[in-house]
Amino acid sequence: MVLFQNTKKMQTLKHYSILAFLLLFLSCNVSPQPIIYGSDGCHFCSMTIVDKTHAAEVVTTKGKVYKFDATECMINFMDEFDTSEIKLYLSNNYTEPEALIDATKATFLISENIPSPMGAFLTAFKNKTDAEKFQAEKGGDLYTWKTLLAKFKD
């Protein structure tokens, strides 16, 4: 009888251990979250995020998500944050509103003819071809993620 009780306790303990592990694993998911336009606030400037073509998001290595109303807010936020903890840098793709793209692989256009929420005139494009097309129409300068960060440090 004692052996049966110990076996049952071990099985129960095993089930609880597996459940705890699964909860821990699922709670540390490092993935983007959808931006709720008109409801979510910018982590940097506190403005409500409404522009579906300029918003941005950062996801840390621990899965914490920070949302921004513009890529320039995300870049300014990086000055106050340990960037080694950031896993994903995401920006809205200008040609596909609400779609978040990898900002580190995007092409950026700064054109005074395409206003952004914080006035930096900064727009992200998934494809360099799209960015070049808008540059031809609207003017401005193209940047990679690396050259954009260098420009914002100046």
TrEMBL record:
Keywords: Signal. It comes from the Bacteria. Residues 1-32 form the signal peptide. This is Copper chaperone NosL. It comes from Winogradskyella sediminis. The lineage of its organism: Bacteria, Pseudomonadati, Bacteroidota, Flavobacteriia, Flavobacteriales.
